[in-house]
What does this fold into?
Amino acid sequence: MQASAPETLLTIRDLHKKFCKDIRYNLMHGTRDMVEQAFGLESDYMTLRKKEFWSLSGIDLDVKEGDILAVIGANGSGKTTLMRLISGIYPIQKGDMNFSPQTRVTPIFALRSGMHPLFTGRENINIKGAMYGMTKEQIDEKMDFIVEFSDLGDFLDMPLGNYSSGMKARLAYTVAIATDPNIFIIDEALAVGDSMFKAKCFDHLQEFVKQPKRAVIFVSNHIHKVLRLANRVAILDKGVKIFESSDIPESVDYYMNNCLGRLDQKSREHMLERVKFYEL
Amino acid sequence: MRRSKVQIGNVNYDYGNVFQGWGHVMRNLREYRFFIQQLLRIYLLAPFKKSLIGAMWLFIFPLLTVIIWIFLHGAGIVDPGETGVPYPVFVLLGTTIWSLFINIYKSSSQIIVDSGSLLVMNKFPYETLIVGRLLENIITFSIPLVINIVVLLFFGIKFTWLSLLFPLTLIPILLFGLTIGLFVALLRVVAVDLCNVVDEGMKVLMYLTPIVYAPKIKIGWLTHIIDYNPLTYLVGLPRDILAQGEIYEPTKYLICTAVVFIACPLMIRFYLYTKPRVLERLINN
It folds into this structure.
């Protein structure tokens, strides 16, 4: 019997997002937009006003079940903006984003975000879980999993402010995965944490995407992690998707060559050698 | 065509349509009621987590306010005019009702800036923050209210059946503070200069509202300002109902209430509609 094609969980077409690089113009454009919205007016989004730039321009992307999609690109290439648009944090003003019905998206952008240092780990499970839209009953149901997976033991009854970055990472990751998302977004959130826990997370992600209607999108510039974890790579450069492939080594080579493209031949070889030395 | 419906938590979002109607708002609030409880825990408990006497400060602050005003009155520094009830009662009730207005204004006007990093890193319905702040203010108001009632009894104030209306008469001033606060919350991101003007204006407004002096005071231009100031009626009627069992300027109070009841939902709608686009202009520290 032939296996059915993986379902597309998310389709993005011609997605644009612009920002303003100057604080004063940012405020000026923001005030104007607010007034226009108050009167139901909409200016042409595709026209850049003074000091505005495209953070994302014409992005097309599909996320299918089983994907562990790495989104990579130099700093400022638009990765986090794209993740915030997928997560619904920023509104979509130009472009289409279609999710398959009942798709649940859970993003982790920063480990401490939404957690409170003065409350215990256990109290923060409730805070963060509730923020993801879980009810008390759903959190209680997942509590054993959270306690077991995070492996924080008695630390769960200590204030979060006393946790190390790695311990916060354990808690944040575990609560996020306990929401049982269809699309799990990890934006540089696993850069900290001890090697044991990272390995546990990576194993978990590999198993996670084997379930039906599950996919992971992770933003990372750690080449080694991309090579080990991803089964598809999308490369962004200045807000444009310049490459996409399931051939991970080829994608990484393309990314590094693109990053180093502005250098002359000698500097490029030297930098490539240094990057490989530290990253691989 | 944009079809960007997605489920986050138990809530379905439509990314293209930022305000999806009041039914959707109510559904979001129901689905996120546990989050609202958690917000309330943070708002009420976090400020006192590092304090030895903890939430006792909620009682101490209003008591200090009363003592200061009684001292000023005793020293003859303020001449309140004809207040109808003992001055401590008058000033205590006035400042407590004013604090409900100014506190909801402060907390709602800071709602985007204070929660900035939270909002750009997490997706949850914005209305939960508004309800969280409203509930926080209602709870923190109820504590000085208990002190008020004790002081009123101490000064021999006799409550009437009209006094039972007191909590209901506070709803307009609460919603008035919220309405202005939400508007300033948006300005705080995109028009900082304007919001500074409003913030300073609020400080002056307290002295232009009959809180520590009687509304019947006759001081030239101040008399006109008091007449046209909606807070004169939104503060005055609840205070007189509780302290004197009288209804102060019912027609003007009802006009102000009607305006607030129309303006507040419109402002919440505008805020929920505009906030996503304002949020992307927020520059986090």
